[in-house]
Amino acid sequence: MTTRRLYYDDSYQREFSAQVLSCEPELHGTTPAWGVVLDSTALYPTSGGQPHDLGKLGDANVLDVRDEGEDVVHVVDREVPLGSVQGCVDWARRLDHMQQHTGQHLLSAMFQERFGRPTVSFHLGSDVCTIDVRGPEPTDEILEGAEHAANQVISEDRPIAVRYGTAEEFAELGVRKEVQRSGILRALEIEGADVQPCGGTHVKSTAQIGIILVRGCTKMRQDWRVEFVCGRRAGRVARHDFLLLQRAAEDLGCAPEDVPASVQRAIAERDAHFKTLKSQLERLAEIDAAAELNAVKPGANGLRVIARVFDQASHAEYLSYFATQLAKAEKAVALLARSACGHLIFAQHPSAGKDMNALLKQVLAQFAGKGGGTRDFVRGKLSDAAQAEKALALAERLVSAG
Ligand SMILES: [Zn+2]
């Protein structure tokens, strides 16, 4: 038995009567559910890049709709008795899919016609839709050009019709897609813009797509993934983008149109402050290191070992400057840790003759963490920052013992 697909002839049919031919228990993920086959359905199964519909069969909620050969299987949350049933389509969801899907036909046609970029795949997601186009990287002019041309066709409100014919007949009309199936094919025609074999659901005229908004383009293997949204979704996305811009403008204390310049200024200021901070931290580390080296007495092995745990009041960068300054002195070994984050820095003057890498490995053999570096300078990070003090004590014992 083949399920008659009502949406092929009328994609605007929201309600329908059908006969339940079978209703078998199955799992929806891990949830018990039923798979229902009808003699006819207006519910669209997942296929051709378009997600399935939702809706109802009697009192049962439709959770999924899938193609199974010539049948359409409706996965529902409760058993549906054999015999007659009334079905309905979740119209907001379907109309959204029809707007995105028809918009994709039009956008792909514009990329192909105007810029010679064929579409190799399409995905209709719950937030954004994408097409992958082949060829050199689309410039901003191409992305805007395709969007503009598509919106021009939308504003002309051209009729959209379903055509039936053989692959040869469509080829004569300049159909882009290679079709493997034989026999009579179903194709979508946007008047004066495109003919494309497709079994999906579409709006009746281009104006019903509403608007197409191209939002980005990224490299995807050998192709370019173009992100877009259509119709009500485009309105929602544009409003969301505007709110983000408005919030950024409020935070920066400027008008929305001045956000890019304000951000540039803030970045320049941040970089300048960071440069100043860096040089002051280096200067401070130099002074602190000199005082520290003056105070420390060489041990029995002649080494001047400086071991210190810093709390979070210290800047993370300061530790490496301090270690670098200490390690400039003959026979000096610096063992530093930061209790806030569990970072470790071990550094030595080459004359100290130890191996900081080996030392770090020994410490990390007892306290979980990772890190590495050279013989004279290593950085590490403990998994448990609370162990900083103990880890440093161990390092100090190991250096003094050897
Ligand atoms: Zn289609």
Q: TL;DR?
A:
The chain is of the alpha+beta class. 36% of the residues lie in helices and 31% in strands.
What features would you describe in this structure?
With 402 residues, the chain is an alpha+beta fold. It contains nine helices and 20 strands. A six-stranded antiparallel beta barrel has the order 2-3-7-6-5-8. It has a five-stranded mixed sheet with strand order 16-17-18-20-19, with helices on both faces. A hairpin with a 4-residue loop joins strand 9 (119-124) and strand 10. Helix 6 runs parallel beside helix 7 (316-326) and helix 8 packs across helix 9. 34% of the residues are buried. The model has no long low-confidence stretch (mean pLDDT 93). It binds zinc ion.
Topology:
Layout: E1 4-5, H1 6-9, E2 15-28, E3 31-38, E4 40-41, E5 55-57, E6 60-68, E7 71-76, E8 83-89, H2 91-115, E9 119-124, E10 129-133, H3 140-155, E11 160-165, H4 167-172, E12 185-190, E13 194-197, E14 212-220, E15 223-230, H5 231-252, H6 259-295, E16 304-310, H7 316-326, E17 332-338, E18 343-348, H8 356-366, E19 369-373, E20 377-382, H9 388-401
Parallel strand pairs: 1-4, 16-17
Antiparallel strand pairs: 2-3, 2-8, 3-7, 5-6, 5-8, 6-7, 9-10, 10-15, 11-12, 12-13, 14-15, 17-18, 18-20, 19-20
Bound molecules: zinc ion.
